[in-house]
């Protein structure tokens, strides 16, 4: 497999609402955007799939930092999403003015349910990696790049893999066959910033990914997929936040109805704001 590397002159950026609050973090996106909340909403039903009596491993090779500053737009989105009552799994962070990353949110969810999970994480940023060193139940993966995680032996025995690079929309052709292979035994959540609405070439790329996944599923009866999305913005979204769950057929089928409900109500909440001007 060719390992694509993150290009330093990445041509696209998400808007950062409050650059002062996240200064020095080198972020290409606003932590706590609708995509982050969407990912967070899927976690509880996914955690619920795992039995309480076995130790499990969560792998996150593009983990970001344990937490981010809770900036005003993120706080407003959170309150709206959770009707002013955020779940217990993030309330401790929010009270401290912090926004948990997905890995921290996942571990907290497991802790509340008394599940014994450990996390193995990596991030290209040295500073982010240093911050993970201080977190309990977390180990660093021995990598130089998150994409290399797919070659690690320990990934074969992981229970859950979050595959969340910035650029999956552009790089999916290289990692997808390996992700598919792993999905026979591991639950894999892929985040993708879906740029299909930006023009014909982008749309063709999205269609090619969809066709490839459907073809793989047809020839791999062990795996199943559930794909959900929400708009990036209420008004005239130029992109979507896509979540693609790949995994053993029985697990994905069991969790899909709940994920569908969550996705419908969350996406509708965002979109309806933009229906009238
Ligand atoms: C979208 S953020 C991750 C957010 C995090 N997974 C979460 O849900 O809270 C992407 C992260 O990937 C890191 N990154 C970018 N390119 C990478 C690479 N090639 N290998 C590992 N990490 C990378 C960035 O430093 C950034 O922190």
Descriptive overview:
- Helix 1 packs parallel to helix 4 and helix 1 runs antiparallel to helix 9.
- The strands form two sheets. This protein has a seven-stranded mixed beta sheet, with helices on both faces.
- By secondary structure, it is of the alpha/beta class.
- The N terminus is likely disordered.
- It is globular, with a radius of gyration of 18 Å.
- The chain has a single domain, classed as Vaccinia Virus protein VP39 (Rossmann fold).
- The protein is 38% helix and 18% strand.
- The protein is built from nine helices and nine strands.
Give the key terms.
277 residues; alpha/beta; Rossmann fold; seven-stranded mixed beta sheet; two-stranded antiparallel ribbon; disordered N terminus; binds S-adenosylmethionine
Strand content: 15-25%
Average pLDDT rating: 90
Strands, count: 9
**Helicity range of the residues?**
25-40%
List the helices and strands and how they pair.
Blueprint: H1 34-47, E1 56-60, E2 67-69, H2 72-81, H3 88-95, E3 98-100, H4 102-112, E4 117-121, H5 126-133, E5 138-140, E6 160-163, H6 168-171, H7 176-182, E7 187-194, H8 200-219, E8 223-231, E9 240-248, H9 249-272
Parallel strand pairs: 1-4, 1-6, 4-5, 6-7
Antiparallel strand pairs: 2-3, 7-9, 8-9
Helix pairs in contact: 1-4, 1-9
Residues 5-6, 36, 39, 61-64, 101-102, 122-125, 128, 145-147, 164-166 line the site of S-adenosylmethionine (SAM).
């Amino acid at each position: 497999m060719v390992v694509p590397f993150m290009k330093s002159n990445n041509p696209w950026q998400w808007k950062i609402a409050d650059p002062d609050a996240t200064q020095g973090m080198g972020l290409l996106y606003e932590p706590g955007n609708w995509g982050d909340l969407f990912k967070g909403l899927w976690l509880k039903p996914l955690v619920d799939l795992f039995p309480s009596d076995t130790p499990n491993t969560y792998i996150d090779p593009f983990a970001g930092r344990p937490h981010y500053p809770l900036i005003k737009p993120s706080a407003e989105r959170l309150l709206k999403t959770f009707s002013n009552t955020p779940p217990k799994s993030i309330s401790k962070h929010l009270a401290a003015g912090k926004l948990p990353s997905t890995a921290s949110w996942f571990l907290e969810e497991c802790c509340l349910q008394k599940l014994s999970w450990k996390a193995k994480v990596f991030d290209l940023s040295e500073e982010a990696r240093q911050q993970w060193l201080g977190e309990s139940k977390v180990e660093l993966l021995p990598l130089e790049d998150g994409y290399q995680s797919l070659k690690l032996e320990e990934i074969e025995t992981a229970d859950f893999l979050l595959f969340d690079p910035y650029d999956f929309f552009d790089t999916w052709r290289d990692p997808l066959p390996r992700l598919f292979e792993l999905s026979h035994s591991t639950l894999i959540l892929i985040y993708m910033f879906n740029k299909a609405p930006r023009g014909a070439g982008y749309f063709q790329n999205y269609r090619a990914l969809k066709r490839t996944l459907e073809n793989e599923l047809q020839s791999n009866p062990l795996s199943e997929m559930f794909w959900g999305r929400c708009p990036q913005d209420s008004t005239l979204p130029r992109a979507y936040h896509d979540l693609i769950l790949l995994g053993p057929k029985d697990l994905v089928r069991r969790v899909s109805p709940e994920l569908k409900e969550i996705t419908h109500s969350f996406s509708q909440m965002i979109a309806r704001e933009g229906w009238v001007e």
